[in-house]
């Protein structure tokens, strides 16, 4: 039964709200803005790498409209102009013409050499940004306002790759030390002025923005990993925009304050194929047969999710039309084998999913231990293969708008996010074919064939496709509701 917000435990609300007390700056009006207040944002995950754009922190910089890329993606995943106004391909090379009159937040001009510097740093990074997995990329200035990007092999996805926030273009000052520091170095409508570790960040409007003055005078960000606290921040008026409200909290909020956004995001159980119990394909198959995803969707997500038929969900409707039966191994018997499943607390539903899986797998004959931590404290162990299984909420088109990059990153032998430790020649061949096929129907067919190759190994068992729930206070105007999680506060967003 759904409870009205007024019946929420006062103690629970007070405790959660206390986590946010004093964390947002004053929301006084700004005389030049016309629309007034600073925007207070409660983010789910704190920075992992000091807001370096070469990490997943890049998507925070993008969501705050402080760092920009050469191109953007439209709703259909097509590349459209951003810092570059046009581009043309010649074999392995793509030449991009830069927008005029763009300045970085430190006052320096956007030049071809500045673009080359940013792209070269990204291409040489270790680890590489996911979007460059399997891609050798070089950039060269062609005069003051043109940049030629060349890949080792002809790549039809270069423009889409360059839309990834991990390939943001920053001023030279950002690259002075051993790490990349984005403070005061972007080109967007908001300048990042201060970062307080993993606690908060401050951004002020950049009045010289090439796309026109932002309607809000600034953004005050608080990192709030606790989902109940984020929901309480919206309920109490402590925050204007709240990321990723847990399903369990959504029913306690005014429906007019929340928006469900269908996500190209799949909740997947990754199984370690390199060592431990699940090196045995028959035991991976036993896990697949033991999982009851529908009960998880109903019980944990309160039917605010979709049961997975594959790795690619309803946000990519063409996948279902192209999908065919997958050949898989027969299930073996668990016989009391002990396994450890890891996951993280940042997405409030995942510990509940882990508990449900523990029961389902124990019923199938496994002994199951759980290891649940904050994501920042568990990612390195997951990538190192320290778990028998790992539950991950994974965006499937986050970087390029094309799922081939995600599939390569997660399942290629040399993929940078290969939690399953998968090294399968058939999968590698299918992934290579998908990556090399030109954009269009043929590429989509190759992508679904690569998905089938992965599913055939049972290295990853897709369970459900998520819908993110975003909270916007009553006075918020034109906040972005972006299924790719690239935009949140834009030049047009403000608080009445």
UniProtKB/TrEMBL annotation:
InterPro entries: Peptide/Ni-bd, SBP_5, SBP_5_dom. Keywords: Signal. Residues 1-25 form the signal peptide. The keyword Signal applies. Residues 79-416 form the Solute-binding protein family domain. PROSITE patterns: PROKAR_LIPOPROTEIN. One of its GO terms (molecular function) is peptide transmembrane transporter activity. Coiled coil: none annotated. Pfam families: SBP_bac_5. GO terms for cellular component: ATP-binding cassette (ABC) transporter complex; periplasmic space. One of its GO terms (biological process) is peptide transport. The keyword Transmembrane helix does not apply. This is ABC transporter substrate-binding protein. It comes from Streptomyces spinoverrucosus. The lineage of its organism: Bacteria, Bacillati, Actinomycetota, Actinomycetes, Kitasatosporales.
